Amino acid sequence: MRVAIAMSGGVDSSVAAALLKEAGHDVFGMTMRIIPSGNDSTQAEIDAANVAQQIGIPHHVEDFRHIFARQIIDYFCREYHGGRTPNPCILCNKYIKFGILMEKALKMGAEFLATGHYARIEKDNNTERYILKKGQDRKKDQSYFLCQLKQEQLRHVLYPIGNLTKDEVRKIAAELGLSSASRPESQEICFIPDNDHARFLEEYTPQAARPGPILNEQGKTLGQHQGIMSYTIGQRKGLQIAAEEPLYVTAIEPDQNAVIVGTREQTYGKEMVAGELNWIAMPALDRPIKVKARVRYRHPEAEATVIPQENNIVYIKFAEPQMAITPGQAVVFYDDDTVIGGGTIIRQGR
Fold this sequence. Notes:
By secondary structure, the chain is of the alpha/beta class. The chain has helices at 11-22, 43-55, 65-81, 88-107, 151-154, 166-176, 197-204; strands at 2-6, 26-33, 59-63, 112-114, 119-124, 129-134, 157-158, 212-216, 221-225, 248-253, 258-262, 268-279, 289-294, 302-308, 314-323, 330-335, 338-348. It has 3 domains: 2-176, HUPs (Rossmann fold), CATH 3.40.50.620; 210-262, Roll (SH3 type barrels); 268-348, Translation factors (Elongation Factor Tu (Ef-tu), domain 3, Beta Barrel). 24% of the residues lie in helices and 31% in strands.
């Protein structure tokens, strides 16, 4: 079986590649060049090429910088400027890694594109649908970031380390003597190496850093911000406001260029609306269902009822109030370890 493996130079994709090679597949590595600045090879490309040479597979670098900048970085900036908090990894998986990279891999003769994600895929023989499941290592599970993948993508995907824990992956890498065995965890967003979102946004779009008021829930000015792109719902640090009790960001109003703050209790909500829905375990939602919903990657799952509306929108009601329901973030619906589907949070409340 001919398999392409997306290689980032990290330990997860390196071990995935080694396991596929060990299983006897015809494997070749593919690394995406996506960081916009510079023309030279990145360290990730060099590391991936070294691992590919170690395990004896061909390695290709695909230059996606222009399309990545247009589809992912521009989206990232637009969302923050619109007062929302985006999740670029989900969009990258949908359009770049399992989009144009997969298309390239299939054109090169691959039957599957494999990655180092901690997730699993099974086929439901009753429905003939491909089912996305959580990775065996619940602490590293990445199914949340894969919620927008469609059936035609999932049928060509392999997750070789989905049944392993991170410790087991590092052990395999060490036993094989892979150069990536001790490489540290990758940063949260690949195109922001220092993880300073505000600095990146200000450099990429200088007009973003426009000062404005920080208001309380009653509209009183408490301070000034240096650009709404520096804030997200639920944020406490960095407000630089003296108050009798801790204050948190409760809303961002781009039309007023204002950040709204309130108490911790005011960040909670029991209802929300989501759009851009993608259903994996079923073709569509035609009736209310009970689920476990996750409103951010690190947020614990919570019991909720999902009610379909018109125009691919759902209304979600939680059994208990949830903190920091944030427009722009993904909400993913689970049934135990199975991903039912996911979408993008539009707003809190009806």
